[in-house]
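Work package 3, deliverable 3.1, input record:
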Amino acid sequence: MASTLTDRLSRLVKTMRGQARITEDNVQEMMREVRMALLEADVALPVVRDFIARVKEKALGAEVVGSLSPGQALVGIVNKELAATMGEGVSDINLAAQPPAVILMAGLQGAGKTTTTAKLAKHLIEKRKKKVLTVSADVYRPAAIEQLKTVTRQAGAEWFPSTASDKPVDIANAALDHARRHYFDVLLVDTAGRLAIDEALMKEIADLHAAIKPVETLFVVDAMQGQDAINTARAFKEALPLTGIVLTKMDGDSRGGAALSVRQVTGAPIKFAGVSEKIDGLEVFDAERHAGRILG
Ligand code: GDP
């Protein structure tokens, strides 16, 4: 088990006894420990660099008060900066659109899009009292269409059938038309994912976005993806104006550094965390709690 930032710094603190301030002299060594802790939590390297630069600036000149040591003070500064970086923005789903509000789900295959679509449907039904329709635009995997049907039923929402021989844009438009005529408040559009970034896929989802003009475009990303999450996030950000992030598989044993990387690269708020395979395993993202998890 990797040591936590608190462990790392408390070792350092012993060598700093009597130093009441964070100074140019001691900050270098402390930043090295912060860097290691973030890398161990799987935050991507360029993101770590930016983050360290911001923390260093805040730490230098920060008054170390009372019984705190410079190390403890730094943990506080890092924690606060992590939470601030990950926590800005609105957490709940934006439905401020002429109904039906369309929500587009994007992400790699296996990230948890279909599961999250159903979880969100349930959330919107129970917490926001909305009438919700789902549709799958994944024409490559008939099994994915069936999977969405099953989980939509579990969520208590309605499912619009799609045919694998149709184009994703046509499927989404047909679902939108159905949603309008039957007074649905929300249409959740699940999309195809690939195992790796793929240009054709990116164009397809960008076209889909242009056709259905979603009020929310959510990027679903696996917290266990670690360092690679930054590349995935970059590619999706280039293709789509993302409005939010859902971080899945937070019940796994990753320290969740992907959250920081994805947030920094996309600029979009992290709205939800997936915490189990079950339909009710979705939580509103809590930046402060997550900062604690990254630092260990
Ligand atoms: P998609 O290909 O992006 O649609 O991904 P799926 O929704 O099919 O999910 C892929 C796998 O991840 C499935 O086995 C899901 O049960 C699982 N999964 C999705 N979200 C979570 C989560 O938050 N926690 C856990 N433990 N598993 C999840």
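The two ends are 11 Å apart (CA to CA).
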